[in-house]
Amino acid sequence: MNEQANKILTDLLQKASNGIDAAVSFSQAQVPDVVHQLLVWNFAVSIIFSLSGVVMFVAAQYGAWRGIKYLHKKWEGDDLLEHPEVIILTGLWLLTLIPLSWVDLDWLKIWLAPKLYLIEYASHLLK
Q1: Among candidates 95, 19, 109, which has minimal Cα distance to 57?
Q2: What is the torsional sign of CA 42, 44, 49, 54?
Q3: SS3 5
Q4: Is there a domain that residue 94 lies in?
Q5: What's the pLDDT tens digit per position in 36-90?
Q6: Domain span including residue 118
């Protein structure tokens, strides 16, 4: 009975060892593809956020410029405090700088130095 239990235990350990070896070799074969997919995904997300931030910034700047141009026609040189819309428009113009915070240059780092990006990404995951 003891020999039979030892044989079953040995078979189970052998199967587990073979399964672990197969999993390790599968993982090693998949690592380059996973790294490539990670780089492509992060590149795409970074480009999308950067482009949308720039487009929103340009659109907001254009709107502020049109508003200032409109107010310049209406404003006849009176006191600034008589035209609170100038102050409001100036505040809104400052708010147009917010979309610039979306600009993310990770796409440039992935394109020019992918190994550096991967090192920084791994260190970020370890924190």
Answers
A1: 95
A2: positive
A3: helix
A4: yes
A5: 999 999 999 999 989 988 898 888 888 878 877 777 776 666 565 566 676 777 7
A6: 31-126
